[in-house]
Amino acid sequence: MAAADLSAERNDIQGLVASGYGHLPHAVYLLFAIDQREAAAHWLWRLADSVTTARRRVNRRAVGVALSSAGLAAVGLPADVRDAFALEFTEGMTDDAHRRRILGDVGPSAPERWLWGGPDTRTVDLLLMLFGESEAELQALIEEHLEDAEGATLVQQLPASTEAFDHFGFRDGISQPLVAGLRSGPPAQTVQTGEFVLGYRNEYRQYTDRPLIDPSEDPTGLLPGDAAGSGLRDLARNGSYLVFRQLSQDVPAFWQWVDRNADGAGNGEREADPAAREQARIALASKLVGRWPGGAPLTLSPHYDDPRLAKAVDFGYFDHDRDGLRCPIGAHVRRGHRAPAHRHLLRSTSITGSCGAAARTASGSTRQRRWMPRSAPATSAACTSSACVRASSASLSSSSARGSTAPSSTACMPIPTRSWPAHRARSPCRRHRSASAISSCLRSSRREAGVTSSFRASVRCATLPRSADLHT
Question: The whole model's pTM is what?
Fold first, then answer.
């Protein structure tokens, strides 16, 4: 199937869908609750112009926006339109006991213990993602947007970074899928546009369910038409789902366990040679992860961390190591591995600092921009297009009488937009503890060179699920 031509659409797609902004090492996430509908509408309309699009060249700074289902309700999007989004997005992560269980959100990680987005904490309606090349640049960006914010209250400000290594010391963000039409590369790593961008065909040549409205509801012609030819207007076109969860990672406990078991039998006997002990602990930790700290996969380099393979992704476990003699079958990266067209996991940013509350020790971490494997547990969020954001803000006044006040949740990680199996529905999310899902359906375009702007339309469809951890 030929890739979709996005040359005229890039200005309506948020840049976060095409890039993890790895060259902008400083980042922050601002979580807002909308208090005043009309004022927030004006803010969203202005915000649409500052969102970084997939067309814009990113130099010193970047801006992304996401709205939850509750956020869409808060700005006046009618309930019947919101209900056309994925069920996981509209329902969120906290209301269903079954979903809590499959996400691991029970016991110490139950939503009742979350720092935000839970049943006992403030609902998050909007997520503002800011990136800068320096701390000074980021701080200036933060001040600009906090000063401009209107009709909303800041719930949380979470510092983050786009470093290449995770909290445990392992290289991260290696296997990134390429969205056809936005980035080019090896066919094995490329997926159809509709896997992550609403309004296009996916790997099954299908269009994912999305809000389609009658042209009479869009008198200014802000929204694009339905590509499937229904004659309706597509509110979500060029938007994407996003999940954002804040979690605790117990780094000391991980390495303490490795130290106790690095000798093989876990009987407390220690290797006399310090160098041999260190080699043994790194080897055991790498067996748990499936890659060496530098990134080399055990499947290709089972005995040492080969720097030449630091970002190797062109291999298959069945072909190279079907019995798990090199990389254990239970290793982290192997468990999440799927066939090439199914490797939908995109990593980029992590929140830094202490998680407090439910965290036992160590550092807090939140990953943004994770494209999730198709078989992962479901929870969704949306990263809306520009037109959708503008439309959402425009609809604040025009549809306020029809709007509902259904609550929502928070999350920030772009995820596939396809249909999902049975109870997992259409939006998957990994098992992250102490978290919440935030969705946004923001596009990011304007009328330019004859291209219909989609960001203001997207304001109309901003969305966020009901949960409590803050992608992607």
Answer: 0.75
CA distance 464 to 155: 15
- Split into its structural domains, the chain has a count of 2
In angstroms, how far apart are the furthest CA atoms of the chain?
78
φ and ψ at residue 153, rounded to 5 degrees:
-110, 135
* Whole-angstrom Cα Rg for the chain: 22
User: Are 384 and 313 found together in one domain?
Assistant: no
Q: Given its phi and psi angles, is residue 217 left (phi above 0), alpha (psi -120 to 50 degrees) or beta?
A: alpha
**363 occurs within a structural domain:** no
Residue type, 447: R
Domain that holds residue 274: 256-346
Angle at 457 between CA 227 and CA 184, to 5 degrees: 55
Q: Are strands 178-179 and 190-191 parallel, antiparallel or unpaired?
A: parallel
In a domain, 24, yes or no: yes
d(CA 2, CA 222) in angstroms, rounded, equals 28
Cβ(382)–Cβ(463) below 8 Å: yes
C-alpha closest to that of 30 among 415, 455, 470, 437 = 470
Kindly report the backbone phi and psi dihedral angles of residue 8, in degrees, each rounded to the nearest multiple of 5, phi listed first.
Answer: -95, 0
Tokens standing for residue 317: 């476990």
Q: Please list, in sequence order, all residues whose beta carbon lies within 8 angstroms of the beta carbon of residue 187, skipping any fewer than 6 positions away.
A: none
Q: Which stretch of DSSP H or E encloses residue 11? A: none
**Are residues 393 and 332 located together in one domain of the fold?**
no
Beta strands in 118-271 (DSSP E): 126-132, 152-161, 178-179, 190-191, 212-213, 233-234, 241-242, 247-249
> pLDDT tens string for the chain (472 positions)?
777 788 889 999 999 898 888 889 999 999 999 999 999 999 999 999 999 999 877 889 999 999 999 999 999 999 999 999 988 899 888 888 888 998 899 999 999 999 999 999 999 999 999 999 999 999 999 999 999 999 999 999 999 887 788 889 999 878 778 899 998 887 878 889 999 999 999 999 999 889 999 999 999 998 999 999 999 999 999 999 988 888 888 999 999 999 999 875 455 566 678 888 899 999 999 999 999 999 999 999 999 999 999 988 878 888 889 999 999 999 998 887 654 444 454 544 555 553 333 322 233 333 333 333 222 222 344 556 766 776 665 543 333 222 222 223 333 344 554 333 222 233 333 333 223 333 333 343 332 222 222 333 333 333 333 333 332 2
CA distance 429 to 44: 27
Q: Sign of torsion, CA 227 229 233 236?
A: negative
Please say whether the beta carbons of 256 and 250 come within 8 A: no
Identify whether residues 97 and 200 lie together within a single domain: yes
Backbone angles phi, psi at 146, to 5 degrees: -65, -35
